[in-house]
Design goal:
mainly alpha
Length: 630
């Protein structure tokens, strides 16, 4: 204390006084510590300076040197004690950094003078050591000691922040109750954010109402787009679409982003506002694979509205251009029905042909092409479609050859239902935006196979039936039947009807089926939303998470967000070992991040199985490392 006073180091002087008070509660510090005489022993002063600078080895050498020259001299016991404690503290911190938690506990137990408010860092490390060695109650006791006895506001706040990362909510609550005033408000805010964020990652998860209310108050108070986004996704995953629209709109107002726009568009689609959703997402349609999928989903929903919406030439043109660029079958098919509704059969013909060129097994497009050829009195064309679809579609097989006039008051819409004819308008792109004649097939999406155990008995779905007219159990069976026929877009509607059931098993199967259908369509976000519509069994929930995380990893990689791709792969690997294709994806992500050494090891492992992509990657990694210059 005298040394610090002489040096004018008031901060360390006060820390020393606090330490002495904790060790000797009845001790009273000098009225004016700065006035305490220091003496004239320059060698001893140098020893104290070494100690103050953390040079403990130099302190011991100086003591040894002086005793060698003056055997009668003895160092102050306080100096020896302080050096011993400081060296113990250094060993304790090193053991903590190396995660040698038993050593931390042993050193702390041997040195009581370290366990006080003057060295809270040691107490933090001791608390963590207890928790990491399965002695949570002892760790809680350490944090409770700090919050009961220590007064420094920053240390108290840091204590609960550290505890919040190591203790479960039920153990953290008693510590938060030791709050003085509202000093832990920021921790409570972060806990509310984290709980909502974690719930958003797990379908069917909910947070306590108090946490949700707190986050809403934070979002309104601080005006941060990130908080509004958390609330928007939470509302969307819990099917509260109006609340979701509110928060996604708020987020876009604060910071227009792809995530906010995707969420807002999905909420709008659910509220039958596909036109607004298309306008929201158009700007972000190429931001990522997920954003593109969301935009395309809005276009399919918009074009499928009944009665057909009156869309401007500009909107129709930009939808058509994007659909052609992405080869998106659902909207191409809906363009065909839209053109028929506006009495433009030749344009409808081209759209149905284009959809079939991209996806030859798309039954609704084949049916649309058949009824349009029938309308144009193309008997040979209808017969050819019936021949191609024999045994696969009863409604195509049973299609009569009655030729409706072009100006008929009613036309066929998707699924075969009849709607009132709209006034003829030349708004569907035809010659100016002609769909290409192509046989390319759409991107294949990996899909978890549906667990159909316990679902309703199978019914034929080759002929048309409106799911809305079926009881939920029958709608569920039709949904699975449509999935077997690779018609996921129609299956989604059937599963939606089945979700109205009061039977929890039917609701679970319907939510599961709808999520799988959206995965097959490449709509990962909607798949996650669908999965949350009813609680799932752990194995199903894990299957969906595995598929969703794999799709998100691929989407992030394709959008050059390589670190994000690795995060998704890491999350998936906690649920299931990585397949060869995902290991190759991980290795290429590491290559892109400038880590060819790490990538090389993965490529070598997978290449041994005969994987060609891994073999190519292995060669690229070797070249990058200068190991192969050929």
């Amino acid at each position: 204390m005298r040394y610090f006073a002489a040096q004018g180091d008031t901060a360390r002087l006060q820390a020393e006084i606090a330490r002495l008070r904790s060790l000797y509660p009845n001790w009273t510090p000098p009225a004016d510590p700065l006035a305490v005489p220091t003496g004239r022993d320059e060698q001893l002063d140098q020893m104290w300076k070494f100690y103050a600078d953390g040079k403990y080895a130099e302190v011991r050498k100086a003591i040894a040197d002086r005793q060698a020259s003056d055997p009668r001299w003895q160092p102050p016991q306080d100096l020896l004690d302080r050096v011993n404690v400081a060296e113990t503290r250094t060993r304790l911190i090193t053991a903590s950094e190396l995660k040698q938690y038993e050593t931390v506990i042993d050193l702390a137990s041997q040195t009581p003078s370290l366990r006080n408010c003057s060295d809270v860092d040691v107490l933090w490390r001791l608390g963590e050591a207890f928790i990491q060695t399965k002695r949570q109650d002892r760790g809680e006791a350490v944090y409770r000691y700090i919050l009961t006895n220590c007064s420094d506001p920053e240390q108290r706040l840091a204590t609960v922040q550290k505890a919040s990362t190591l203790l479960p909510p039920e153990a953290l609550a008693p510590l938060l109750s030791l709050e003085r005033g509202d000093e832990f408000a920021s921790v409570r805010d972060d806990l509310a954010r984290n709980r909502v964020a974690q719930a958003n990652k797990k379908p069917g998860s909910a947070v306590p109402p108090d946490d949700l209310a707190r986050l809403k108050a934070i979002a309104e108070r601080d005006g941060k787009a990130t908080d509004a986004l958390l609330l928007g996704w939470y509302a969307l995953r819990h099917d509260d679409m109006n609340e979701a629209m509110k928060w996604f709109s708020a987020a876009r107002g604060l910071e227009d982003s792809s995530s906010a726009s995707q969420g807002l568009a999905l909420a709008m689609i659910s509220l039958d506002k596909a036109g607004e959703a298309e306008n929201v997402m158009y700007k972000w349609r190429n931001d990522s694979e997920e954003a593109s999928a969301t935009y395309l989903a809005t276009t399919a929903n918009l074009m499928a509205e009944d009665p057909p919406p009156l869309l401007s030439e500009e909107v129709l043109r930009r939808i058509a251009e994007t659909v052609i660029e992405k080869k998106y079958v659902p909207t191409a098919q809906q363009f065909g029905w839209y053109a028929r509704a506006l009495n433009q059969p030749q344009t409808a013909l081209r759209w149905f042909q284009t959809a079939l060129g991209w996806k030859p097994d798309d039954e609704p497009s084949a049916y649309g092409l058949a009824v349009t050829r029938q309308q144009l009195n193309d008997r040979a064309g209808v017969a050819e479609i019936q021949r191609l679809w024999a045994g696969r579609s009863a409604r195509i097989a049973n299609l009569g050859l009655v030729t409706p006039p072009m100006a008929s008051a009613r036309v066929v819409r998707p699924g075969g239902q009849l709607v009132q004819q709209q006034p003829q308008q030349s708004v569907v792109p035809s010659d100016s935006v002609r769909p290409p004649e192509t046989t390319a097939t759409p991107r294949q999406v990996r899909l978890v196979r549906a667990d159909k155990a316990g679902s309703a008995s199978r019914v034929s779905c080759s002929s048309y039936a409106d799911p809305a007219e079926l009881p939920p159990a029958a709608a569920l069976a039709r949904g699975w039947c449509l999935m077997d026929l690779k018609r996921p877009l129609e299956a989604v509607r059937a599963f939606e009807i089945a979700l109205r059931s009061d039977n929890i098993r039917v609701k679970q199967d319907a939510a599961y089926g709808e999520s799988l259908a959206y995965l097959r369509l490449g709509l990962t976000s909607k798949a996650a939303v669908a999965a949350a519509k009813a609680p799932q069994r752990p194995e199903r929930s894990a299957e969906l998470q595995i598929a969703i995380l794999a799709d998100r990893a691929n989407a992030a990689f394709n959008s050059e967000r390589y670190r994000e791709a690795l995060v998704y792969l890491d999350q998936r690997s906690t649920l299931q070992p990585e397949t060869s294709d995902l290991l190759v994806l991980r290795a290429y992500a590491l290559m892109k991040l400038g880590r060819p050494d790490d990538a090389l090891r993965i490529f070598e492992l997978v290449a041994e199985t005969g994987n060609r992509a891994a073999s190519r990657g292995l060669q690229e990694a070797r070249i990058a490392l200068g190991l192969d210059r050929n």
